[in-house]
Amino acid sequence: MIHIKQHIFRFLYKYIGKPIFFRIDPEVTHDMVEWFGKLLGKHSILQKCTRWCFDYRNPALSQHIAGIHFPNPVGVAAGFDKNAQLMSILPEVGFGFEEIGSVTGKPCAGNAKPRLWRLKKSQSLLVYYGLKNDGCEVVKTRVAGKSFRFPIGLSIAKTNNTETVDAQKGIADYVQSYRTLASCGDYIAINISCPNAFGGLAFTDAHLLDQLLAEIEKEPVKKPVFLKLSPDLQEKDIDAILLVCEKYTITGFICSNLTKVRKNEKIVDVVPSEKGGMSGKVVADLANSCIKYIYKKTQGTYIIVGCGGITTAHDAYEKIKAGASLVQLITGMIFEGPQVIGEINKGLTELLKKDGYKNISEAIGTSIE
């Protein structure tokens, strides 16, 4: 039955939904989808209908990681639900967890429009939002004291303005967000890799990262902490980051964020702007390389979340076998449709069975020699 439903919704999205959506400005489309998702999430009957249409569950996909129960390994990456509006509907679509944000210390209007483009042939997006969000205080009101059907992560970044270019003010901004949001949700992701903000990737510098993590470590409320990395980092940069992280209580890494590098054989469209970073298929190999490098370098010490270019179960499985315990996506859903989440989860159970694994955790890192 689930296969038939997935086939029907794939057909409807491919031949009706996607052609309509892709004629509309991508940011307008996102805002429309967000509005509709909020509506679905407000009513239990609509939640149940959505669950019947899309959700797929299998105990082989369930894991306990860092004290958190994940019903399946496929999550929503930060950037889709920037302001904590969709937590009630996304689990019904079949996601195993969600990462909200990135959220900043102060409200942020983001960069000037246009700031989102589709690279249709490349199955990618060019993103220049610039950390548009309502700020940590507002987001807290939407998450604090509430329970959801899946784990919630909160991605924090420094406010995108000229003030936070100063390193100490940038650190204070991160700490403000952490302090405000650490009592909410299940984990915190520290985004040190947004390519679209004032000051660039300052905290990929080992010295500044050391200062940032030292301040975060002082906070009394403790949560699992992940660092979100740029796919454009060199191995020497990753080595320096790993060396710093050994000093602090870091749970793991999210590999990876957007790529700014235009020299990439997977880019087959004309990139419409020199600004912004790219998601989707163009970042897939970069993310996979980052996962493999960190997993092998640290011998599986850290939890890795794989993000970038996932549209099929094989894409997700490749990241898991490379060392990722969990995976995230946004762009794959935009290009393939909401049924793709269930397709990936169903496909993962079939791949596990084929390889003789009883649980997804058994496949983690198995392609690393």
Would you spell out the secondary-structure blueprint of this structure?
Blueprint: H1 2-21, H2 26-42, H3 44-54, E1 63-65, E2 68-70, E3 74-76, H4 90-93, E4 97-103, E5 116-119, E6 124-127, H5 136-143, E7 152-156, H6 167-181, E8 187-191, H7 206-217, E9 225-229, H8 235-245, E10 252-255, E11 277-278, H9 284-298, E12 303-307, H10 313-322, E13 326-329, H11 331-336, H12 340-355
Parallel strand pairs: 3-4, 3-13, 4-7, 7-8, 8-9, 9-10, 10-12, 12-13
Antiparallel strand pairs: 1-2, 5-6, 6-11
Describe it for me?
This protein is α/β, with parallel strands linked by helices and 369 residues long. Helices cover 39% and strands 15% of the residues. The chain has twelve helices and 13 strands. The chain has helices at residues 2-21, 26-42, 44-54, 90-93, 136-143, 167-181, 206-217, 235-245, 284-298, 313-322, 331-336, 340-355; strands at residues 63-65, 68-70, 74-76, 97-103, 116-119, 124-127, 152-156, 187-191, 225-229, 252-255, 277-278, 303-307, 326-329. The strands form three sheets. Strands 3-4-7-8-9-10-12-13 form an eight-stranded parallel β-barrel, surrounded by four helices. The protein has a three-stranded antiparallel β-sheet with strand order 5-6-11. α7 links the parallel β8 (187-191) and β9 (225-229). It is globular and about 55 Å long. The mean pLDDT is 96.
- Kindly state the number of beta strands: 13
Mean pLDDT comes to 96
- Major sheet: arrangement of strands: 3-4-7-8-9-10-12-13
Secondary structural class: alpha/beta
* SSE ordering: HHHEEEHEEEHEHEHEHEEHEHEHH
The helix content, as a percent range, equals 25-40%
User: What Rg is obtained from the alpha carbons, in whole angstroms?
Assistant: 19 Å
Strand content: 5-15%
Helix segment count?
12
Low-confidence stretches: none
Distance between the termini: 39 Å
Q: Main β-sheet: number of strands, strand sense, barrel status?
A: 8 strands, parallel, barrel
Given the C-alpha coordinates, what overall shape results? globular
